[in-house]
Amino acid sequence: MSETFYITTPIYYPSGRLHIGNSYCTVAVDTMARYKRMRGYDVFFLTGTDEHGQKIERKAKEAGKTPIQYVDEIVGGILDLWKLMDIEYSDFIRTTEARHEKVVQQIFTQLYDQGDIYKGAYEGWYCTPCESFWTETQLHDGKCPDCGREVERTKEEAYFFKLSKYADWLLSYIKSNPNFIVPQSRANEMIKNFIEPGLEDLCVSRTSFSWGVPVTFDPDHVVYVWIDALSNYITALGYGSDDDSLYQKYWPADIHVIGKDILRFHTIIWPIILKALDLPLPKQIYGTGWLVLEGGKMSKSKGNVIDPVVLVERYGLDAIRFFLMREMPLGSDGLFTNEGLINRINSDLANDLGNLLNRTVAMIQKYFGGTIPAMGPLEDVDKDLEQMALGMKKTAEESMDAMEFSNALSEIWTLIRRSNKYIDETMPWILAKDESKKERLGTVMYHLAETLRFVSVLVSPVMTKAPALIRGQLGLTEDDAYAGWESLGSFGAIPPGTKVGKAEPLFPRMDVEKELAELESLIPGGGKEQNKPAVTVEKKPEISIDDFGKVQLRVASVTAAEKVEKSNKLLKLNLSLGDETRQVVSGIAKYYSAEEMVGKQVVLVANLKPAKLMGIVSEGMIVCAEDADGNLKLITPEGAMPDGAEIS
Fold this sequence. Notes:
Layout: E1 4-8, H1 20-38, E2 42-49, H2 54-62, H3 67-84, E3 91-94, H4 98-113, E4 117-127, E5 132-134, E6 152-161, H5 167-176, E7 181-182, H6 184-195, E8 202-203, E9 205-206, E10 222-223, H7 225-230, H8 232-235, H9 245-250, E11 255-259, H10 263-276, E12 285-288, E13 291-293, E14 296-297, H11 308-315, H12 317-327, E15 334-335, H13 338-368, H14 380-401, H15 405-426, H16 428-431, H17 438-458, H18 466-473, H19 480-483, H20 512-522, H21 545-549, E16 553-563, E17 571-576, E18 581-586, H22 594-597, E19 601-605, E20 611-613, E21 616-618, E22 621-622, E23 624-626, E24 632-634, E25 646-647
Parallel strand pairs: 1-2, 1-11, 2-3, 7-12, 11-12, 13-15
Antiparallel strand pairs: 4-5, 4-6, 6-8, 9-10, 13-14, 16-17, 16-19, 16-25, 17-18, 19-22, 20-21, 23-24
């Protein structure tokens, strides 16, 4: 029996059409699920919708519909979007389904019967859009700390869950299981901002609205949305039903992938509910960043959302899935701009991958009548390409297993660029002029075709259409010998004599300025950097190449970081350069927390004379860029590099 793998997205709140930021998280989970299936895992991928609450009840009334009519229409649109984005989920759970509501009632009753839920009265601040209760101290300028909108003073009879009873246990569990919440900065945030200040008992029922799961023993109350919504991860598997075989097979979940705005519910409330029920906890909760525009997070209320349907219809599904996974590391916020999208498509997809495929197939047609030739004796340049291709399997697995999709794609593209360089090095057009070089030319053509096959397999978790198109142009059928992950274990799977297809552009190159204008008309202001002040830099005297050669720049990893006492600007960093360690004091505390710096790779001016800042010796300087407003951003390597690598 194959090993199981259970992964979930957040279940989305059906308050309107989903935007590209929602698609970002779901595509990431779909990418991981596809990768695991290719590795032979028995994968269960769950997504769905969280459909109860006061906000839905109000919006339905405003629309002149019943709540279920209102959510049915929106959920239909979500299902259509996931079909368009080629999301291969195993189940789509709706919290209005009887299979879910019945078990939520059982869970609520069990927690009440065992004394973990008690009746009381609630008075406090409530954010309807977020369905969240907040204390006075948690508000930001009197508004919801998550969405920034107005909150309402609420007073009503309610049931409470004894969250405080489990606070010490949860703190101990998180600290003793460092991979439970990732990235580590998210765990530190939950501990510092919520757990250590003290957990208050949680209001888990409402009487001021009726659109929810009724409490069986007190029907004037409906179950508070987060106990309702969070339980979906086990109700979808049949927990508490007559057939819990899926629950027995797949639970505990391997990874819950969660947006950082709802992380506290999943890392605090959900583990405590499971502990109270005496059920296993998920193995890992991964807090993703946001896909943001200039000015902040995408929000329908702000009117700054990007419609994924528009993008897919214009650029194709693979281009959009690739951009989402390549442009933004999953655990960090990523910036969406029209310029970034077009440049990524042109550079990586059209220039690198598309050009490689087109040149290879066209040359096989021209020089060998469209038939892939056999390999002859190998030269060093051939062996070098082979070894890079064969090493890519392990490299990709390391990044994919850690959900570092951007890094995985960056590494795969080194193979693509190496293949294009291989063409320039071997010069097939010169070999073709000499009949005695025919065998050598065949070896070159075979290596290009086989490397493209490798690439088609490696990108399959992210790009769902292009891999088959690549193999189709190479004349290959869709079976495991050519398309399976294990086929990456040896170089030479393509049978000589295979007839290639027609060379056709996979990703046509676009005119950047023309395309940006077209895109702006389709998504006004959506991904365009608006009113961004120009950066003015004071010009310094020219220097010679010898002067510049005196500066040594090296890659370093941050192994530890802490704020400098009595300073709001400085962080003290411990850096690894492979063969040595350095201590550096940097004025980046306003832009990066100590927790999020740990594990980052930075660029260090390594031969700067040591200096003292706030009495602390600083052995170098890390390199940052500064915008017109004085904000700093770290300069980091595009992909992981060995500590100590010199930048030239």
